[in-house]
Specification:
mainly alpha; 3 helices
Length: 119
């Protein structure tokens, strides 16, 4: 394979005629790839955090509903205690029971061990 000798070192350097169209097409492909990558990354985050987030939002909605209906006539401090217990119970039923996520149990166990060891 022979290469031609370079004879015109300082000649006019112009891009090809279809350079603008080709660069636009390459830019669109690059942007499309970045958008697809963003959707994949969002999907990964939702699959990891999804059950806990769904459980937290469902327990939150239940807590607001209980606060405005069942616990509306109870004084402030007992209402806060009852809401805390009902929210925690709903969260654990949804996340641990429905989705089978065991991480909240491990975290709770380690916090309990730390509290017992501190005393």
């Amino acid at each position: 394979m022979k290469s031609e000798p370079l004879t015109n070192y300082f000649g006019e350097n112009r891009p090809r005629e279809d350079f603008g169209r080709r660069s636009s097409r390459g830019g669109l492909i690059s942007i499309g790839a970045r958008i697809a990558n963003a959707f994949v990354q969002i999907g990964k985050v939702v699959s990891v955090v999804g059950p806990q987030a769904i459980g937290a939002l469902a327990a939150l909605a239940m807590g607001f509903a209980l606060r405005d209906t069942v616990f509306a006539s109870i004084p402030t401090i007992p209402r806060a205690v009852f809401l805390t217990i009902s929210y925690s119970t709903a969260y654990f039923i949804i996340v641990v029971g429905l989705f089978g996520v065991r991480t909240p149990l491990r975290v709770g166990r380690s916090v309990l061990r730390a509290c017992v060891a501190y005393q």
